């Protein structure tokens, strides 16, 4: 049976972090059993991992073309693997799938994070019965020692919420159509089998149900992604957009987005892109190319929103909230970041954390290419803001890490233009040319020739002179050198946006 992932993207590390993939050129039972134990313990709540047998590695990356396995090897390895996994304490059985990749047979061992961690593995498959806990440290499988072992033991009762069974729902609450749509979008071969196999087997292969056949129940993650109304089970499973109409916050509009998590994210991104984000194009005299920038770059908002959905706790009945002000956007979620992140180091560009609150939610979002899950969120937000010419982001939490707030501040020139447009709307009788002059001269004082060039005129026409004169006489434009109106150095600047406000006549 096929895996619920795109195998090509998996092997090339496009949907799963390299630290969660271990390549084995050949069959090495003892080493592979240790890695199965480590992935099942899922020390960092990464969501387990994958062991790919038949592909070598160099410095953590796959070596192509693959060495491959012989057909007769694959059957023998699967039988041997079953016996080996019975030696784990507690017994744990991964999902094993032979695949044909680049004209070679390879074996993929998928090891989701275990429900009954911690697991122990025999140190040796020889006669000795010494056991040890194994964990993943970066891209290596190592024995847990000292504090690591104590922390692993303390995780026994702390199964991530998204991976827990929901006893208040049934497998019938999972939507077959949504599951097939997901498999189609990620390009999984499991889609071709979905209609032919029992629904319960499909859900088990998706890792969204748990329990014996007589009492199989959906996991919380299954309800969050593959139920039409997850807010029925989790009151905080929604995204609220609040748009404030004034600085005080007394006037606002609110929109609530519900449905499966993927649908929520896509709908909110579409709403923000179509209704909030604005591209500004400013022509520069003596330059062929115009300067383009957005009030907020889409990539920064997308990353901030998906991170909020990914890392919030669905045990807390608070939605992800997007607040839109005249000069900033805020994305708020509960609770705050996991250690080592705290309120004092959150703005440190070099700080990182590889602990995840929701291990399966993260995997599904990665497969949908909505997040990378490689601890790159902060960097991506900063980079997209910098490339847009926007101010640095602000990340906040409190001493108790009870919330996480991302603040994206508006591009300074976009703010000027927005303020000018708001003031221009109050003026009766302005022509389009005059409104454009005010907007451009608010950003930068300009000469008549520069104004003409910005407006696309070949020269300073009589109509343009008339428009400027009327703006000057109505107090909407000022000279930069009032005492020398005819100076060659003379420029014109708008009297709005931080200078003087336009007033209705």
UniProtKB/TrEMBL annotation:
Residues 438-495 form the Filamentation induced by cAMP protein Fic-like C-terminal domain. Gene3D superfamilies: 3.30.565.60, Schlafen, AAA domain (3.30.950.30). Residues 17-144 form the Schlafen AlbA-2 domain. InterPro entries: Fic-like_C (IPR049514), RecG_C_sf (IPR038475), Schlafen_AlbA_2_dom (IPR007421), Schlafen_AlbA_2_dom_sf (IPR038461). This is Putative transcriptional regulator with HTH domain.
């Amino acid at each position: 049976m096929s895996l619920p992932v795109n195998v090509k993207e998996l092997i090339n590390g496009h949907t799963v972090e390299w630290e969660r993939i271990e390549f084995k050129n050949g069959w090495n039972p003892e080493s592979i059993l240790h890695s199965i134990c480590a992935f099942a313990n899922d020390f960092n709540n990464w969501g387990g991992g994958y062991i790919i047998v038949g592909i070598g590695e160099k410095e953590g990356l796959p070596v192509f073309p693959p060495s491959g396995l012989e057909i007769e090897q694959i059957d023998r390895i699967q039988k041997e693997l079953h016996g080996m996994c019975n030696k784990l304490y507690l017994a744990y059985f991964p999902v094993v799938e032979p695949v044909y990749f680049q004209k070679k047979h390879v074996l993929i061992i998928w090891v989701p994070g275990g429900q009954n961690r911690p697991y122990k593995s025999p140190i040796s498959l020889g006669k000795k019965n010494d056991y040890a806990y194994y964990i993943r440290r970066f891209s290596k499988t190592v024995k847990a020692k000292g504090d690591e072992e104590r922390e692993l033991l303390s995780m026994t009762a702390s199964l991530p919420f998204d991976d827990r069974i929901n006893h208040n729902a049934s497998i019938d609450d999972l939507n077959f159509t949504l599951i097939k749509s997901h498999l189609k979008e990620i390009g999984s071969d499991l889609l071709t089998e979905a209609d032919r196999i029992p629904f319960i087997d499909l859900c088990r292969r998706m890792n969204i149900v748990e329990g014996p056949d007589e009492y199989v129940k959906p996991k919380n993650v299954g309800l969050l992604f593959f139920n039409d109304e997850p807010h029925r089970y989790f009151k905080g499973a929604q995204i609220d957009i609040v748009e404030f109409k004034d600085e005080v916050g007394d006037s606002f509009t609110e929109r609530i987005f519900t449905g499966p998590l993927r649908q929520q994210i896509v709908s909110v991104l579409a709403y923000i892109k179509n209704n909030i984000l604005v591209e500004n194009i400013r022509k520069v005299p003596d330059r062929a190319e115009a300067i383009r920038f957005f009030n907020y770059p889409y990539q920064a908002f997308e990353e901030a929103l998906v991170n909020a959905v990914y890392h919030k706790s669905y045990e807390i009945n608070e939605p992800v909230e997007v607040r839109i002000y005249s000069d900033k956007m805020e994305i708020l979620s509960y609770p705050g970041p996991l250690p080592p992140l705290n309120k004092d180091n959150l703005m440190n560009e070099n700080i990182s954390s590889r602990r995840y609150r929701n291990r399966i939610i993260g995997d599904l979002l990665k497969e949908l290419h909505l997040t990378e899950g490689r601890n790159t969120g902060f960097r991506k937000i900063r980079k997209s803001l910098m490339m847009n010419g926007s101010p640095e982001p602000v990340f906040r939490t409190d001493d108790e890490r009870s919330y996480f707030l991302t603040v994206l501040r508006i591009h300074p020139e976009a703010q000027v233009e927005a303020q000018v447009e708001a003031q221009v709307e109050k003026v009766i009788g302005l022509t389009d040319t005059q409104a454009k002059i005010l907007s451009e001269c608010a950003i930068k004082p300009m000469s008549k020739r520069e104004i003409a060039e910005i407006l696309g005129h070949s020269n300073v026409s009589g109509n343009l002179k008339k428009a400027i004169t009327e703006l000057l006489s109505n107090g909407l434009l000022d000279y930069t050198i009032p005492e020398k109106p005819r100076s060659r150095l003379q420029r014109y600047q708008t009297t709005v946006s931080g200078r003087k406000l336009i007033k209705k006549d």
